[in-house]
Amino acid sequence: MDVGTEVREKGYTGWEGRLIQRRFKWSPIARTGIQLAFRKKRFKPLFAISFLPAFFFLVGIYVAERLEDFRAFFREANSFIAVDPGFFRAYYSNGSIILFILLVLAFAGSGLIADDLKNNSLQLYFSRPLRKKDYILGKLAVPAFFVSLLTFVPGLLFIIFKLIFSGSFRFITEYPWLPLAVVGQSVLYIGFFGLYTLSLSAASRNSRYVMVLVVLVYFFSEILSGILKLIFRSPYTGLFSLGGNLNQITAVFFSQKTPYAFSPVWSFLVLSILAVAGFIFLFRKIRGVEVIK
Amino acid sequence: MTNVIEARDLSKWYGNILGLNEISLDIGPGITGLLGPNGAGKSTFMKLITGLLKPSRGRISVLGGSPWNNPVLFSRLGFCPEIDSFYEDITGLEFLLGMIRLHGFPAAAARSKAMAALETVELAADRDRKIKGYSRGMRQRLKLAQTIIHDPEVYILDEPLTGLDPLGKRKMIKLIRSLGGSGKTILVSSHVLPEIEALTSLIVLIHQGKILARGHIHYIRDLIEKHPHQISVICDRPRHLAADFVGDANVSRISFGPSAGEVVFETGNRDQFYDRLGKSLVEKGIEVEEISSPDDNLQAVFEYLTGK
């Protein structure tokens, strides 16, 4: 019913703003996520401690190269630490580094989407020149930043320090593919742990609950795999372990013997399926508005 | 009049629930009030304009383009949502910087724009305080700051006056009016008629997902005046006050409310009643604790318009 429409003579004022095209639209989201992580209580000491494994491995490289200086401590050893691809594999498959990655992500990544859902911030993001993929990339950049600091940076430092301490390029000529393996391994961890954290963060509005989930789900898969192995005594039960699948692929990257007696292609498939499922879940979960049904 | 927002046969369903029902509406520059009770479809309409929802049927165009999946358009659009959408642990300035950087402004320009927006909403002094320490009014103003920060052409303000104290409301109204006066297109929603009345004379009435009326507020006012208003007064001597109004031509009914000291008047002429009430209170020296209108009669108008 129209109760009377007034004819209004109003001029149209031109817009004085500027249309700006930015290549990395996701970068402000990433920056905010990293800033917020460092504001969390106890995050800074945890983050500092998480570099301890890398530090010990670096000390290991130094000791291995200066074995003569340490003869007094290790009389019987000729080469008690071999800095070769196996050394790198040992770092990346080390339980402590995985634990630190999980703890850092539990603190820094649990609230990435959960807090947006809780604070209804998604409508603010999506009423700006931002697509869903920009939002997800921005959020993904936060775990990527932290995981790369714990994987890519130490891997690179290991190679550089090995070259410095040994005083020759023999190591790199012997294993010219090693830098690529470090990059590949880092990409694997960044991709896996990034999607893993974001998917869990999108599963709840409660970031504390997500924080527990980030650590729990990973170790639950280890326990489940262990139980299944006891029951079925099959190596394929390793496919149920997230860590087991990661270790299989890590072994391939560094040309080492795989921990399970099955093709690493299976592990690659399992992780790929999980990644696709994670992406679909994220895209479905992230909406500008809450849809009431 | 140039139409900035055009809706044609616009419908939106949430599953089986109908949010909007075949709305056709043109909105031009200036302030337009979107008035309707809670659940009327105001927020749904605004979210369709801001591209947060996809129309189920019909089409909507803003500045000549469809807002759905069209992020470039959002540089020219400012949205102030009804509910708070903040990270509590960051400061007001950091929040605004995060928002403006999403528009692609470089750091220096972003900072100056954020500072300007904080000045406009009078929050510059509190820019380094964490949002969790902000009052309700400050939060509302911060929401408006993130709406105006990139100098958009179209403003979509969903219940911007909700929860503000009278002084805060006055400031916000002044601010919105000044934006409207500068030629921007502003669509502002509310479920309280006097709020919209203070902002604009051009209103759209929405109810149960349908546009019931649109036009000058006087038409709506006239409709409302035909229905009696209830005005509740809580004072120290309700009986004396009630006795003073017995036989008053503007008062059709007097009753005592459930609260201690409460007397409820029903009047067909609100303005004259308030004139008389003020005089009566002063003459009799009655101390007033609260005056409120439990029913601003908007619902009555909606019922009238829908023929219920």
Architecture overview:
The complex is a heterodimer of chains A (293) and B (308). Chain A contains 14 helices and no strands. Chain A has 293 residues and is mainly alpha-helical. Chain A has one domain. The longest helix of chain A is centred in the C-terminal third of the chain and has 26 residues, at 207-232. Chain A is globular, with a radius of gyration of 24 Å. Helix content of chain A is 66%, strand content 0%. In chain A, α1 crosses α8 (132-150), α5 runs antiparallel to α8 and α11 packs across α12. With 308 residues, chain B is α/β, with parallel strands linked by helices. Chain B folds into two domains: 5-222, 3-Layer(aba) Sandwich (Rossmann fold); 227-306, Alpha-Beta Plaits (2-Layer Sandwich). Chain B contains ten helices and 13 strands. In chain B, the strands form three sheets. Chain B has a six-stranded mixed β-sheet with strand order 5-6-7-3-8-9, sandwiched between helices. In chain B, β1 (5-14) and β2 (17-27) form a beta hairpin. In chain B, α2 crosses α3 and α3 crosses α4. Chain B is globular, with a radius of gyration of 22 Å. The model of chain B has no long low-confidence stretch (mean pLDDT 86). At the A-B interface, α1 and α7 of A face α2, β9 and α7 of B.
**Major beta-sheet overview of chain B:** 6 strands, mixed
Query: Which H/E pattern describes the elements of chain A?
Result: HHHHHHHHHHHHHH
Order of helices and strands of chain B: EEEHEEHHHEHEHEEHEHEEHEH
* Secondary structure: number of strands of chain B: 13
State the CATH superfamily name of the largest domain in chain B: P-loop containing nucleotide triphosphate hydrolases
Mass-distribution shape of chain A: globular
- Mean pLDDT level of chain A: 87
